[in-house]
Design goal:
single chain; mainly beta; Jelly Rolls; 13-stranded antiparallel sheet; globular
Length: 178
């Protein structure tokens, strides 16, 4: 495997997916491709908090004005789910139903949600570096209580790995590590 971009430092903050206090949170992280790639799966650095059992729903979406997630899938099978059980941070894999092609020099969004109505403080944490994240080609956006998505935040960078299939060998390697 080869790493095209690697950023996994800082980690000074958690961003919730699910219930925290009296609010429900959904999260998204944008990234910008350098080259055209074919993506088989994505890893997120996540831990379980309290008793949440609902799976995380994962979507790869296009970019909308703001910038925010558009609500439009990159491709029909650009979805996955996972039910992390780890209470310490670990990489959680979201395997897509089929490989997804992404265009070069294009902004995309990783969007993760859980069903609304979680018990108080039942959520997953997604590790991030905030407010001093240095990933210049994207940022975090948050949706609170199913309202409008907030705009991409500069300096708020959640950890993720977008993998690529090597066009020559067919092997899987990193495209981005954030």
């Amino acid at each position: 495997m080869s790493i095209a971009i690697n950023y996994e430092t800082g980690g000074n903050s958690d961003t919730p997916i699910g219930d925290l206090g009296t609010d429900e949170y959904n999260e998204a992280m944008s990234f910008t491709t350098v080259d055209a790639i074919v993506v088989p799966f994505v890893d997120l650095y996540i831990r379980k908090v309290n008793s949440i059992t609902d799976p995380i729903s994962f979507r790869l979406e296009t970019n909308a004005a703001g910038p925010t997630p558009s609500g439009t899938l990159v491709a029909a099978n650009a979805t996955a789910s996972a039910s992390p059980s780890n209470t310490s941070y670990d990489w959680v894999r979201f395997t897509l139903a089929a490989n997804i092609s992404l265009a070069a020099a294009t902004k995309y969004w990783i969007k993760v949600t859980v069903p609304a109505g979680q018990a108080t403080n039942d959520h997953y944490d997604w590790q991030r570096n905030s407010p001093s994240g240095t990933y210049a080609d994207g940022g975090e956006a948050t949706q609170v209580n199913l309202g409008a998505w907030g705009n991409e935040g500069a300096g708020d960078d959640c950890y993720f790995r977008v993998y690529k299939v090597d066009p020559v060998t067919g092997n899987t390697g990193y495209a981005f590590v954030i």
